[in-house]
Specification:
The protein is of the alpha+beta class. Helix content is 28%, strand content 28%. Strands 9, 10, 11, 12, 13, 14, 15, 16 and 17 form a 9-stranded antiparallel beta sheet that branches. β9 and β10 (200-202) form a beta hairpin. α1 (15-26) packs across α10.
């Protein structure tokens, strides 16, 4: 267990690392950010920073020696990096969660093993394999790189047979996963935290709206039955237990309406604080970032109850130029990430409103 005044090391210096460092500071903990990008937004709010490659073992060893526990802000940190650090200091969550979340096939197989529903899927290693699995799964379908895809990157739709060869070529030699197209009504997510002693705390199910494959808006409570919400939270809890997870994580679902109030289909697992949980910064007793810091430090989790109906809107690209207009709304909670360059598709900040 950490004490106030000790230091948490964070791999990754983006906006999630920045918000984790701010949450830690409120609790009297310092943060040391390790990232390869010299202009990482988290550096400005951390007690210390290291600019080095994730595979630089000498730099990693110095980093580990300067901190008391380690976490990561995103899932594309090399698993080998986390394994190296685990031999030196506690890393929460551990490499097991990271390894599963980096592979879409592993995510789907884990969800199925726990009794959760997923899209039909198949491993793809060749064009011939893709043609065979399209016949089995049917069209429309989507093919994705098995590793390192987010915000719609690394995927292509297959609507007609003529799309098969170009879609396979788009993988650029990477292993793929073919998924059946899910005709869903809404996208929802469960953001939850799990402590080292197994204590579990979930925020209310969040309803999400995407634009151009990037989250645009999240609202709570989601339009979902109590029974279906309980099912989604129960799946998240099983996933956290199976991964021996410590910290905040998210499970994204497709919601398919039905006579029983709808069913949830697991889409993705994120082993980190999550964009769809940003509403908790102003709309819950304990935000997702504080929950993560509490778990990493070995402290009790806070109360995840929401304070009312809440809306979060992402500020992407030039949206952030409206900061003065947004501040004119005295009930808007503006969060900017300290990024100096606005460009299309780049998350620059978000706005929370309690409705």
């Amino acid at each position: 267990m950490l004490s106030p005044g000790q230091t948490i090391g964070i791999l990754g210096g983006g906006q999630l690392g920045r918000m984790l460092a701010l949450a830690a500071a409120r609790l009297g903990l310092d943060c040391h950010i390790y990232a390869p990008e010299a202009e990482s937004p988290a550096f400005a709010v951390s007690a210390a920073s290291t600019v080095a490659d994730y595979r630089d073992e000498a730099a990693l060893a110095r980093f580990a020696a300067s901190v008391d526990a380690i976490t990561y802000e995103f899932e594309n940190v090399p698993v080998e990096t986390v394994r190296f650090l685990e031999a030196l200091k506690p890393v929460r969550p551990g490499s097991k969660a990271l390894e599963v979340a980096q592979e879409r096939l592993a995510e789907k197989r884990l969800a199925r093993s726990l009794g959760a529903r997923t899209a039909e899927f198949a491993e793809i290693n060749s064009l011939e394999e893709l043609r065979d699995q399209v016949k089995r799964i049917g069209l429309p379908a989507v093919i994705k790189t098995n590793r390192f895809g987010y915000d719609g990157k690394g995927q292509a739709k297959i609507l007609i047979p003529e799309d098969i060869a170009p879609a396979f070529a788009a993988l650029k030699g990477q292993q793929g996963i073919l998924e059946s197209f899910v005709s869903f009504d809404r996208e929802v997510s469960v953001v939850a935290a799990r402590a080292e002693d197994g204590t579990f705390a979930a925020f209310d199910v969040t309803e999400n709206e995407h634009r151009h494959h990037i989250l645009h808006r999240s609202v709570v409570p989601a339009r979902i039955s109590d029974k279906t919400a309980a099912e989604a939270i129960g799946i998240a809890r099983k996933i956290g237990e199976a991964l021996d997870y410590v910290g905040t994580f998210a499970v994204e679902f497709f919601l398919v309406d039905g006579a029983a109030g709808g069913e949830v289909i697991v889409n993705e697992i994120a082993p980190r604080v999550h964009n769809s949980g940003h509403w908790t910064m102003d709309g819950a007793f304990t935000c997702q970032f504080e929950q993560h810091i509490r778990a990493v430090a070995g402290w009790p989790l806070g109360d995840p109850a929401r304070l009312g109906s809440v809306e979060m809107i992402n500020l992407v690209g030039a949206d952030a130029a409206r900061w003065l207009e947004i501040l004119g709304d005295g009930r808007a909670h503006l969060h900017l990430y300290g990024k100096t360059e606005m460009r299309d598709g780049r998350k620059m900040g978000h706005v929370n409103r309690i409705l």
